[in-house]
Amino acid sequence: MPTPAIRAARWWSLFDPRATHGRLYLLLLALRTYSALHGHGYIHPDEWMQSGEPYFGLTLPGINAQLPWEWRPDHALRSLSALRTQYLAVDVLLGAARRLGPLSGRALFWVQRGNMLLWTLLLDVCVARVLPPQTARYVHYLFGVSTAATTFLVRPFSNTHEAHLIAFGLLHALSFYSDRSWHTRSGAGWHYGVLLAILAVDGVFTRFTFAFFALPLATAFLHRLATIAAQGHRRPALVLLIITTLALAVCAGSSVHAETGFYTRSATANGTEVASAWGTRWVVPPLNALRYNAKTDNVAQHGLHPRWLHAVVNLPMMVGAANCVVVAMCAWQYVWGAAEAVPSQKDTSESGSEGDEAEKDAIQQDEDDTPSTSATSSAPHTSPPNLDLPNIDLEPLTTALCLATIALPLLALSLSPHQEPRFLLALCFPSTLLFALHLQSPLLRTRSTLRRTLLTLHTAQHLVQLLVFSHLHHAALLPALFHIDTSLSHLPTRGNALFDRYEHHLLYRTFPVPLHLIPHKGRGMFPRVQHFTSTTTPAHMVRSASIACDDTWIYAPAWIAPQLRDEAQRQGRVQLVRVASFAGHVDMDHLRESCAVARVDGWRDAFALHKLEVRCLSSTHPEPPPPQPTPAAAHHDL
Q1: pTM of the entire structure?
Q2: Where are the transmembrane segments (predicted)?
């Protein structure tokens, strides 16, 4: 958590429900909380298969989770230490859930979403502590209603953790620049280097793309140290640089040591090789991920996209069209202002050394005044004029940092032929900060129509995306899993599993099933929960279900259910009867088929996941179907 150099007095007043801002913030927080705890939208398999599935599969006994291929020792693309940091509050929340009763799938869902919700609250507090009050208010409004905050940041994506770390890093850099006297105080400033090292190592081990987002922030940190050294404070600048370097080495070394131990033990247990670095015994997951994604043949397995997709489609989707307009305006003003500054600097360079001495005196006077004014810096409207200088001086730096943090990663990630919208999630906070700053600029303050248009566009787009991604996109799968878990919880825990726990729950043509959300299944063969992908034909699906008819249920989207019933009628062995439906299941890849079903059965039944009971039509059970190759689902991100 960034530590501001100038602590705002009563920064918590921004959350006071008696004030207008406090009430608006709590309203947006309630929207975010509802989306986190009741938004069953399943955006991408990595949401669960790269977070909760490996975490609980490795830490929670009795969970029948399946490790994705990225977690195999011969690939070693993921970091367990980074996942533990992302799930920092999970164990505490898990303990609280245990006190309320036996763990259920819904409880594990709430534990993970609650953990990610706490990360967003920490970011809100950091915004209030570091940014000027009015800017913080605008950030709370704009970011609070965004798709990033209400939908993506409350989900356990690795992109989510990366986005949080970038936001913390940006606030940390601004806090570091705003502290104008740390180098004059004995023993001060070391925490800046330590925190920077922790953020950097955790970010790189979370996703190697973090380096692209964080490079401008690291450059700003080094530039600040160089400036302080040039002002005659070489010793504190050098000491902080050494502390930062040592902290980086310690954090990186401990992470590599932890990953090496984890993957080595896994390789020994499974009899496989370890993807070590440069022929050594050390395992460095971000390096393995970089090597994997550098090969086009590898990323081609997960889908190839045009290289303009990020800039033209994904960026407006993730950060918002209004944010894109504001970023373009800021970039134009910044470049135009820099071009105009060049001749003006030439004109003023003849002022001589007297001007330089006066500027040095002003800077020194400002440094001397900082400690005594820290208590009132949160209220610039009631402070003497000189107390506003730090905020005014930091605005060009904030603009430059945000623009660089947006432009450099966008360019770097656009070089890859595999581009997904969530890869740009970390750009949401810097673009929102630019929007908040620009709302206070003369350009938007004097153009009320443009201002209202941008704010309306921003709010409308993100509310629509909240509905689609958080409450409709494959949103029936998780309730179906909770239903299965509840059904399994009613089975006896003792006795012959073949007779007493014999249930088959088959899921067809859905996203991959996170088995850790069905904790009552256990590790045994029975009861059975099995997932079938598009490589399985309806005919094979029906034959598989007919083996244990009367004890089997199929869960399938409404658009494929008629084909299953027709196939069952053709085979003449079983009858498929719909016994339940889970509404709100929108599959973007099969909208045409769903709309065709809607014209016959209605919209509610068309966009739903149907539970089909497999009933025997004869006493003779069919022979088992021949095995059909079902390659592993290719779900992967950078």
Answers
A1: 0.88
A2: 190-215, 236-256
